Amino acid sequence: MMSPYYQAFKQHFGRFWHRYQLTRWLIVAVLALIFVVSATLTFQAKTANVGDLKAQLEKTTYIYDKNNKRAGSLYAQKGTYVPLSKISPNVQKAVISTEDRNFYHEHGFSVKGIARAFFLLAKNKLLHRDYISGGGSTLTQQLVKNAFLTQEQTMTRKLKEIFLAVEVENVYSKQDILSMYLNNAYFGNGVWGVHDAAERYFGTTSENLTVPQAAVLAGMLTSPSGYNPIDHPQASKDRRNVVLGLMAETGAITKSQAAAYQKTPIVTSDTYQSKDSYRYPYYFDAVINEAISKYGLTESEILNHGYKIYTYLDQNYQSSLQTNFKNSTLFPQNASDGTKVQAASVAVNPKNGGVMAVVGGRGKHVFRGYNRATQITRQPGSTIKPLAVYTPALENGYFYDSELQNKKTSYGSNHYTPKNYDNVYTGKMPMYEALAQSVNAPAVWLLNKIGVNKGYDSVKKFGLPVTNSDRNLALALGGLSKGISPQQLAEAYTAFANDGTRTDTHYIRKIVDASGNVIVNNPDVRTHKVMSPKVSKQMTSMMLGVFNSGTGVTAKPYGYSVAGKTGSTEADATGDGDATRDKWIVGYTPDVVLATWEGFDNTNSTHHLENLSGTGVGPLFKTEMEEILPYTKQTPFNTQDASTLAKASKSSNSFWSNVQKGAGNVGDQIQQGANNAVDSVKKWWQRSFG
Predict the structure, then answer these.
(1) Are strands 62-64 and 308-311 parallel, antiparallel or unpaired?
(2) pLDDT above 70 coverage of the chain, percent
(3) 454: left (phi over 0), alpha (psi -120 to 50) or beta
(4) Which of 54, 600, 636, 642 is the most buried (most CB within 10 A)?
(5) In angstroms, rounded to a whole number, what is the distance separating the alpha carbons of residues 471 and 633?
(6) Calpha distance 477→441 (Å, rounded)
(7) CB 611 within 8 A of CB 580
(8) Cα-atom radius of gyration of the chain, to the nearest Å?
(9) Which residues does residue 348 pair with via DSSP β-bridges, in sequence order?
(10) Catalytic: which of 73, 99, 179, 536?
(11) Is the distance from CB of 344 to CB of 486 less than 8 angstroms?
């Protein structure tokens, strides 16, 4: 029935196709597409820094401290790099026989391998599988896949792999390529490179590997976990014998030799020693994170491309922090189920914002895991009072010794009623005492007087994350919607230690690549004017009192003057009126700012701290400061404790107070005489004209 219509359509379409020469246009379109793809991939290959590949594979990424001394190296997917002359010819022959027989006769790729890849692509598309099930990659392709690309099995990645392989072949000799491949291959059990694999599995060096041993290692390349001789001895032996047969096929060994070797047992021996120099794990993690987020590097590049990364690390500070975090006597007792109280500390140079030490938790460290010093978001408690209340108050006409109301007071339509910790109210108290003793009622009263918006704007200038929902009086006591991290708190307090200027915290000073090119060099440090030096000085004088006579007195480092603030937050719904969720201490000198936090990761009725006074972090903070401050310049403060200044002021003003009092008495007598005269005139007027 449809035949006539089909014939008519076919005839009409044929004339149309012929008339507009669509075959030629189709060929042009395909060629254009091939040209564009080829040009794009060629450009990517040319700009992939292939010339740096050998240097990147040979070198380890090292971290340097503030004095340009090597502090350690990063975990890397590489082992001990040795030249090809130090790798047994047995290994070279075994690998080439197994992985790429035409290695010395091809230019980075195999035509047969590409054809096989296209066939498998078509097959998988028909089966609705979006990957390539193999593809006959050459050694060069495998090298560039591991060095430059991801492990995803797609056609796009395959094409990139081919073009990069061609570029590598243009730059390096076959010997260099084979050396890079063998030094960069993975052999299971966390071992990279043939030299370390020889030690791990046979207790020998790469240059002394026998033919059977070389065949074992070559056989592992397709499946390091499945064919390693320690975990799977029989599978390893079977695979080894296959490799020996392939070596006989290519003429690397004779058939009789292969048969003899196949009968030998596999004897393993382990002399490998892991070269772990990830000495400062939380600091190194933070460096990696900053290199990724700020400078656009990938984790793989950082770990494997042989960079030199220069930081602000102070190894004395860092070592002491790490030691202290292992000392259980400096922390509250564990919960009844054994859960540890967690903690985090960070030390910052207030002048340049460089982080000099950081520890993000207690217990076993996980590579690039949770760092509480940089990632927690907890309510800051009373540590926010200097930022949200007292700094803006000084900027708006108050003085460090201004009298503040200390009464239990309700505010607003919701009757917000802040309470002092001890439920004691003295009626009035000077500002410096209210801060040092961390009394809540005067802080909220003062924020209400100067206006919530001024406090809110001040907190923003200090760099803490606040939202519109934080525009309320609870801001005075640290009631933030998002919370902050210890590093954010330390950065905020750099403003007090640095004459009113806050400095952004950061870790990296310089990055040099494997070829010696400087890719990051002393980046500009952002600073923010938060307050005047005069206000900063007054704030420091008040916060010296925190450690001299206030809530931080038990945390004061022996023999040193430190300014700062303590803080704590309540643990809700625990049934314990004294239960605490977070405890903070932040302290500073002109040389260093240290912020420390304690608490449980998950707070509930069985996991909370005690003693809401906020001094519970004292032992840890005190020890940390006593071990940090001796290594600083010990620059003195340019002011004294506010209570000392207040007493001196009262003493020096006593004479003038008496003079003023005498003058006041004379004035009172004159005023009284005038009042009596007025009264007499009034009485006479009433008698005469009343």
Answers:
(1) parallel
(2) 80
(3) alpha
(4) 642
(5) 40
(6) 10
(7) yes
(8) 37
(9) 355, 593
(10) 99
(11) yes
570 is catalytic: no
For residues 474-499, give the mean pLDDT: 96
Residue (of 550, 535, 503, 567) closest to 639 by Cα position = 535
Taking Cα atoms as reference points, which of 344, 364, 365 lies closest to residue 355? 344
Q: What does the buried/exposed string (b/e) look like for 320-341 if buried means 16 or more CB atoms within 10 Å of the residue's CB?
A: bbbebbeeeebbbeeeeeeebb
Q: Which residues pair with 566 in a beta bridge?
A: 585
Q: Could you tell me how many residues make up the chain?
A: 690
Single-letter residue type at 205: T
CA distances for 428 relative to 442, 446, 538, angstroms: 8, 12, 20
User: Rounded to an integer, what distance in angstroms lies between the CA atom of residue 265 and that of residue 244?
Assistant: 14
Residue 657 has which token pair?
């107070």
Give the pLDDT confidence of 368-388 residue by residue, as tens digits: 999 999 999 999 999 999 999
Please state the pTM of the whole predicted model.
Answer: 0.81
99 is catalytic: yes
Q: What is the DSSP letter of 237?
A: H
The residues pairing with 276 across neighbouring beta strands, listed in sequence order, are none
Q: Residue 54 corresponds to which tokens in the numbers above? A: 């050998």
Q: Write out the H or E segment, with its range, that includes residue 220.
A: helix 211-220
Q: Which of 97, 179, 320, 382 is catalytic?
A: 382
* CA 470 – CA 458 distance, rounded (Å): 12
Q: Which of 16-20, 266-270, 600-604, 686-690 has the lowest mean pLDDT?
A: 686-690
Q: Residue 148: which residues within 8 A CB-CB, separation 6 or more?
A: 48, 160, 164
Burial 375-411 (b: 16+ CB within 10 A, else e): ebebbbbbbbbbbbbbbbbbbeebebbeebbbeeeee
pLDDT in tens, 589-637: 999 999 999 999 988 877 888 764 444 688 999 999 999 999 999 999 9
Q: How far is 595 from 497, CA to CA, in rounded Å?
A: 13
User: How many other CB atoms sit within 10 Å of the CB of residue 118?
Assistant: 14
Identity at 625, one-letter amino acid code: M
Residue for token digits 């009072």?
Answer: 385
- The pair of structure tokens assigned to 358 is 């950081």
User: What DSSP element (H or E) covers 527?
Assistant: strand 527-529
Q: What secondary structure does DSSP assign to 332-395, as a single string?
A: PPPPTT-PPPEEEEEEE-TTT-BEEEEE--SS---TT---HHHH--B--GGGGHIIIIIHHHHH
CB 571 within 8 A of CB 299: no
For the chain, the distance separating the N- and C-terminal CA atoms, rounded to the nearest angstrom, is 132
Helix residue spans in 20-138 (DSSP H): 22-46, 53-58, 89-99, 111-126
Under the banding of pLDDT at 50, 70 and 90, the label for residue 690 is very low
> Do the Cβ atoms of 379 and 582 come closer than 8 Å?
yes
Which among 423, 420, 342 is positioned nearest to 382, based on CA atoms?
420
Contact 605, 577 (CB under 8 A): no
Token pair of 418 as six digits: 């802040």
In the structure encoding, which two tokens stand for residue 367, read together?
């590579």
587-598 residue pLDDT tens: 999 999 999 999
How far, in Å, are 511, 631, 641, 642 from residue 507 at the CA level? 11, 19, 33, 34
User: Is 217 within 8 Å of 209 (Cβ atoms)?
Assistant: yes
Helix (H) or strand (E) holding 142, with range, is helix 139-148
How crowded is residue 254: how many other Cβ atoms within 10 Å of its Cβ? 11
Among candidates 275, 312, 242, 216, which has minimal Cα distance to 509? Answer: 312
Please name every residue paired with 113 in a beta bridge, in sequence order, or none if there are none: none
